[in-house]
Recover the amino acids of this structure.
């Protein structure tokens, strides 16, 4: 009986935690929508970099961003990170998704993903550079006259 009560209590606690998370997310999204409406003064349904920049100088908007655990100090970077389609306009859904994604500090998973991607890219770049150098060496050794002629032409100019 005691074990069953403990299990029931744990399941109830999990449901409460889930409810609290969903409720907090809903409040967070409403705050983001409010910020969006503050910035989108022309009511176009999109925020340009200029609108974004103009309003992030406003202390009220800065405070709103900070309350959402977003650092508004680097306006251009924040905008670029939210503008994943690179069309230089943030619609409401893109703005909400960007704010949710960039909220708070980097998590262990974020750092691990960046580290993995960096190592993968460095490895690819290294292979590319080695192949390019080998091909260039092959070109030079097979056609030294061409390179010699190019050097003479440069000297004569």
């Amino acid at each position: 009986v005691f074990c069953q009560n403990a299990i029931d209590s744990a399941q109830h606690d999990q449901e409460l935690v889930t409810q609290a998370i969903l409720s907090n997310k809903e409040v967070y999204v409403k705050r983001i929508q409010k910020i969006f409406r503050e910035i989108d003064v022309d009511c176009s349904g999109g925020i340009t970099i200029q609108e974004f920049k103009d309003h992030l100088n406003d202390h009220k908007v800065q405070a709103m961003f900070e309350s959402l655990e977003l650092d508004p100090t680097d306006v251009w970077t924040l905008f670029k990170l939210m503008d994943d389609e690179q069309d230089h306009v943030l619609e409401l859904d893109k703005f909400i998704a960007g704010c949710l994604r960039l909220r708070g500090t980097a998590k262990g998973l974020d750092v691990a993903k960046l580290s993995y991607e960096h190592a993968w890219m460095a490895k690819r770049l290294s292979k590319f550079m080695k192949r390019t150098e080998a091909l260039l060496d092959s070109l030079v050794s097979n056609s030294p006259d061409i390179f010699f002629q190019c050097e003479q032409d440069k000297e004569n100019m």
In short: The mean pLDDT is 79. The chain has seven helices and two strands. Residues 2-39 form the longest helix (38 residues). The radius of gyration is 27 Å.
